[in-house]
Each structure stands twice: as C-alpha cells, then as structure tokens.
Amino acid sequence: MPPHSNPNFAKKRTPPPDETFEEANYLKALGEKQKVVNLKLADGEVVRGWIEYYDKHMVRVTRDDGPNLFIFKHEIVYIAEDGKKK
User: Fold this and answer.
1) How far apart are CA 41 and CA 74, in angstroms?
2) How many Cβ atoms from other residues are within 10 Å of residue 63's Cβ?
3) Is 14 strand, coil or helix?
4) For 5, 8, 61, 83, which has the most beta carbons within 10 A of its beta carbon?
5) pLDDT tens, 65-79?
C-alpha cells in the first residue's frame, strides 16, 4: 500500500519560522516613507504617528497631536498602516 493511501501516514510539515528577519526592512520602509501607522499597545492604548527611528528594543514614534514617544517593542501588540493622510 503506498504511504499516501495509508490512513495512519501523516505527512511531516515543516513549521513556519519564528523569525523571518524582515522586521527591520519593514520598519525602515515605514520610516523612509513617513507612513502613518497605528500601534496597539499591550494595555489596549492605540498610538498614531510615524516611525522615525527603531532599534532592537524600541521604536520612536513621531506624532502631530502629541509628544514624540519611545515605545519598547515588547509593549507593541501590532503595527498597522493607517489609510488616512498625515
């Protein structure tokens, strides 16, 4: 009996990588374009601005409606591009 027709045969799939190493490229592109983003933080707060600077541990968000912020990456749940104009 061929393995693909055996009900006990399970194909082993390679799990997706934990890290794609594309984060720096994405943050760099957002900063160069001064693309406005929404950052949702672990406490539920949403910060809107553009990413002026980033490093291994934090991002600097420049905002029009408030002071610029340094935010630790471990506090960011997600970053979403904002469709509205700056």
Assistant:
1) 9
2) 14
3) coil
4) 61
5) 999 999 999 999 999
